[in-house]
Amino acid sequence: MRLESLVNQNYDNLNENDKIIIKQILICQREYRNFSCEKIANECNVSRATLLRLCRKIGLDSFSDLKYLLKNNQLEFVNNDNNFHDVCENYRLLMNELQKISFQDICKIIYDAETIYIYGTGNEQKSLAQEIKRIFLSVGKCVIDLFDIGEIEFMRESFQKSDLFIIISLSGETKAGIEIAKFINNHIHTISLTRLDNNTIATLCEYNLYVETQKLDTLQAISYEVVGAFYALLDLLHMNYIEYRRRKE
């Protein structure tokens, strides 16, 4: 379990002060992973007792559990001027992380769903939505991709409790995505697919899937975000779903 996942799952248990503390820990986790409980508490300007209460609020039994997550929470990406072999090594690290994901509960939700609805917040996300549609049409599921809030408002009357809505957002913080996640909340099962981070859309969804992404420098004055890990995640989800259905049938 990743620290960001625990925070998103228990976000409703946190007060505003807790959110400030956890945000600082997430930002500084590489620095904090070798700190003691007292030192992290001092860095966050809180007491040791407050930090321990926060650990319990996000489902940890002790500070030792937090320390373990901090030490194992970061992929140590190699970055050497976009060297091809380094990019390949980073993909290997990403695949190792993806293999740790348990798809059992999500496969059950997909299996039970009469209809799967999908929404992507941007162009790349809509491409991912098309890939999800292709994957699950191939195994006999009814899949409908929705373009915007207007289409979702129109289709909401057709939602059944067993249906599934998948929302895809790299950042998990787009205004339209948050609006849609709030709009469909409690009407249907929901899965978010986002970059691994503490983000609003993930906290609003019932289930979460995450991947790490990598940014590369380009010839222009902008960076390019490698999103291939999302497609690898979808392949693993597809294979796990096929195995799940074989066991059920």
UniProtKB/TrEMBL annotation:
Domain HTH rpiR-type: start-end pairs: 1-77
The residues the entry assigns to the signal sequence are: none
The SIS domain extends over 106-239
Top-level taxon: Bacteria
Gene Ontology BP terms: carbohydrate derivative metabolic process
PROSITE patterns, sorted: HTH_RPIR, SIS
List the transmembrane segments: none
The GO molecular function terms of this record are: carbohydrate derivative binding; DNA binding; DNA-binding transcription factor activity
Where would one find coiled-coil regions in this protein?
none
Pfam families according to UniProt:
HTH_6, SIS
Question: Which keywords does this Swiss-Prot/TrEMBL entry list?
Answer: DNA-binding, Transcription, Transcription regulation
UniProt-listed PANTHER family = GLUCOKINASE, HTH-TYPE TRANSCRIPTIONAL REGULATOR HEXR-RELATED
Output this protein's name: MurR/RpiR family transcriptional regulator
